[in-house]
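Loading example: each entry is read as two labelled lines plus one structure line.
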Amino acid sequence: MSMSRLRPRRLSILLAALLLWGGLPTASAQPQRAVRADTLYTMTGDPIEEGVVLIENDTIAAVGPAPEVDVPASAEVHEASVATPGLIDPRGTVGLSGIYNVPADQDQLDTSEPMQPALRALDAYNPREQLVSFVQQLGFTTVHTGHAPGALISGQTATFSTAGTTVEASLRDSITTVAFTLGPDAQARFESPGTRAKGVAMLRQALLDAQAAMDGGESEGDLGQAVLQDVLRGEVPALITAHRAHDIQTALRLQEEFGFDLILDGAAEAYLMTEEIAEANVPVILHPTMARPSGTTQNAAFTTAGVLHDAGVPVAIQTGWEPYVPKTRIALYEAAIAMAHGLPREAALASITREAAEILGLESVGTLAPGQRADLALFDGDPFEYTTHVCTVLSGGEVVSDECK
Amino acid sequence: MLFSPDCRAVFGSLASARGTSYVLYAQRNLSFSNRPLFRMRTVLLLLSLAGLCLCAPAQAQDRPHVFRNATLYPIHDEPIEQGVLVVEDGTIQAVGPVGSVDVPANAVEHDAAGKEIMPGLVDTHSHIGEVGGGDGSAAMHPDARTIDAINVRHPSLHRARAGGITTVQLISGSGLLMSGQTTYLKLREGGTVSELSACEEKPVGDCGGMKMANGTNPQRASGAFPGTRARAAAMAREQFVAAQEYRRKKKQADDPSEAPDRNLRMEGLIDVLEGRRTVHFHTHRHDDILTAIRLSEEFGFDLVLHHVSEGWKVADEIAEADVPASIIVLDSPGGKHEADELVYRTGRVLEEAGVDVAYHTDDPITDSRLFLRSPAIGVRAGMPRDAALESVTLAGARMLGMEDEVGSLEEGKDADFIVLSGDPLSVYTKIEQTWVEGTPVFDRSDPEDREFATGGYRVYDGAAQHVHE
């Protein structure tokens, strides 16, 4: 009741504000905010000592060393020891896999059929999920989330801003990838496939059917086939979860057969396949560094991100999906452990900023440069150190968190 | 004490679990170890010990070791920059600043300049070694002994050694109200559970506590299990009352023939009632924490709270009851309703209230190799540094009743310590060596040991997982 009474008044305030802006065009061009950091990681080059980022509305207006950037007196200035682009979770299930872990808040995997490319992440994402704000407070402004591993084709993934309370307001990219799974993880919940070979046969047939329908010009009506056709046309990448070395080989083989854009996901044994992955020019969104060594991740190593990076493979580090605890991992912490085990510092930061954006085809986030979305994470020390806090988070030029966490 | 002062004692100390002779223990290793480098090391030690025995029977012992120039964290006392640590016969002989400590002339020298040395870590709650307790036939298993389930050759024990853990409580799951008798181990190398026993004076089967749980984990919809919190508490009380009755009858029987027959379940509970076993109580929600305390007060048993996710809400009540808290910190809250308010600051809040706080791994819930992350996250949330370091050493030792033997670098205590490349609470720091009772059990410079720290192909083959689902 009170909400509806308030609404017209709010609307009129908004209108007045708009009119004011319209009347004073110079005011809107004035940068309203600046970030000044002892060390500024723009991710477009070397870090800038005493760097400044100038923000106008939701966009970055200027970036540079303090003496070279004029900060208007009216701008609100945020000081930090270290500032980075707003962090990106390169692949998780946050927003679909809720904090309580009960059927009512677990929307990351439907097990009625083993292949469901039609399932859209945006129809399941809950922007008010507590874990979304939890990761936001730790510096994450963008999450690539959606259907989990666990089915041959579990569904689509999408990319969201962690700000915004509706799906529409949060949505950055409605279909970022289609999520595939190879190996035993695709078998556990289904009567069939019951073996690796059967699973791959089923996948190939589905792709061939989509190809035939596309060649025959018939795709309307079958939502799933239309999505697979997007994959076959190279418009949407296939995100294939494959941990064991032979499953990684299968992913590369499928990519070769069908020519789609492949992103390897998980890839626990990628260190056994480094040359092949590099040669195929395939990026990897690696399992959480601290993934438990069990099942298909039994042979996971803390050193894999570093090994892949050394071989020239683009690497992002994911949070993945957790059936129990922690209900979401924190990609920053996972990147920190990778950094401590051989991934160079800049590459570790890139794995949750620039490189993640590039792998996912997200253009306006992941770096600090003029024209980019004003997403920033401000730290009171080394971002990777256990005891450092994320103290301010900016999303689209707005402060969305300002308590040291 | 691992080493005995003379040859006869070396060969004669087999009967004592903690005094297991290194020589015979090495022979066991030769027969069973699948780790060639350890084998090589033990062969060399065996030979050198044999040589010492032949040459100087009265002085047969390992040479003392001295670590110089490291930053030492004694834990019970202020850190020492440029410290000296002397260990001999499996125990700490001396700790102090450079120049203040007598070093035996024959000591093996270790220049630890730039390194930091702290006591071996004490993990009060771990599921390594494929440990298990009772089954689904009942909610309470006071008779189930984890010693009958532990696989000490499991690679997860090496994971713990790589993480600097030297003392550990192996504990059965939380899916049962009382899942069994826990076991306290020292992570010395060895092929049997007895060889790893943390108790010198009693059999390994008596070296532990009792696991209990409340909240949602032990609740089930049917059968012998509680479906509600009140039913869970009632079932626990019933069993303790029955044990009191059994004990009364046993004591009152004038003639042994009139005494009740031996009942393993009752015997396990009487161990608890008479203080021989501390109850290690899995509990998350604030009201469940108070229920555990209420039970301990009603029946007078020793209690350590475990996990304590909502302990920050009832810190004063926990302090008032004088009950220690072995806590877990997770990267994010949730996974179940009762952990949705798990926060990084619990350690700080409890410590400020005056509660004795330890962190635990709950391995594999958090990884033993990264145990030091937990106190570091505690510091991130405002816990003082010294309390954080104590929480993974001396505080844990107190919760296992082992504070006189482990948990601090003090003369006469077990020579359990770790050599770190830097600040124990930094992500950049590596655990370079783990020593148990004067013997290295993990050395990162050894490629085979290093694998257990980093993981890799078939390193953790057969590493079964403990799942709470």
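The CA atoms of residues 285 and 310 of chain B lie 5 Å apart.
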